[in-house]
Amino acid sequence: xxxxxxxxxxxxxxxxxxxxxxxxxxxxxxxxxxxxxxxxxxxxxxxxxxxxxxxxxxxxxxxxxxxxxxxxxxxxxxxxxxxxxxxxxxxxxxxxxxxxxxxxxxxxxxxxxxxxxxxxxxxxxxxxxxxxxxxxxxxxxxxxxxxxxxxxxxxxxxxxxxxxxxxxxxxxxxxxxxxxxxxxxxxxxxxxxxxxxxxxxxxxxxxxxxxxxxxxxxxxxxxxxxxxxxxxxxxxxxxxxxxxxxxxxxxxxxxxxxxxxxxxxxxxxxxxxxxxxxxxxxxxxxxxxxxxxxxxxxxxxxxxxxxxxxxxxxxxxxxxxxxxxxxxxxxxxxxxxxxxxxxxxxxxxxxxxxxxxxxxxxxxxxxxxxxxxxxxxxxxxxxxxxxxxxxxxxxxxxxxxxxxxxxxxxxxxxxxxxxxxxxxxxxxxxxxxxxxxxxxxxxxxxxxxxxx
Length: 452
What we know:
CATH class of the largest domain: Alpha Beta
């Protein structure tokens, strides 16, 4: 079926991004919004809009009942979840199906399986995809954790099975640290993700984080859209992504892409998704997790392939075959994305407030944003306010373009992380492509010493 109207169950720049593609495809859009977002850009740009609740996300953007009611009331054929919020909620996908509304994403059971790190790990092991040495089941007691850690060797990573990000991960270097941290991470897992289940894995030191964009249709066709390097992170969250990865040889890239395809084919996946891997400095790689949604960094892939990934999502959800076969998908040049956050660039704490002045860079830069002068950046939502995306013929040209883009961006009224991002693109290790996920931690130490 061809969709006539899509409701976007999200806010900010990703809602605007989906609206843009829908407009190109001749599809009407419905925005949902909280009381704090009344008058926001994504609300003004959609064909229709529906108020779904007060500012807190639990009462608005995570209120699945209100969102599905809005879809029914407006006659939407489908719901696009964006990323974050309800995008990886298997129950929400199931509710959509039960209500006769198509969820633009994979089947609900696949979302639930891949949302559990333990289940995802189990499935990948069965499919022959390499996984990090660690627990095959939940680690329920400190005694189990200590025994396994002794077996695989320190340092180890203890992480929540039901969620990710810095709050769900703890790195422990000794039995003493594990004894102190075990109950703490279980308590955090229960508090933030509603599930105390944790698993324990070998911590790969000085790792690189590289992911593979994949697409699959209901006819069994699966393709990759190459990789993205995501190793520039703060507190286990990405802030700069690039493609292709400067770390991969052609042989290593081929092995990585083949492993991603192998895993996706084996789980009955449909729509777009991302297979994430962690690399040791020796080139060994392991499955980390699967994101069953569009990624924040999808514009990087769009820049090197020339494809519209949101359009692919919609066409697959309409029941169409993949738009292109593998041999017709090419990566050209080099692309890079920086995420701009409303936060203190050194302390990394959110900086809500009103944007009093805003100036974006000149031509040649893709700007995905949902703010303007006068926008109030709310304390209730993720502090990411924009993404800058550049493309060049090679990596050196792209780094230069990103440096100019960041330098030309002026934001006043709130603190932002542009000073930190400029430190990244000026860093010798980054310029050489010889960096790991510890890069920003090292830069922050230097910035604090300089008082910046």
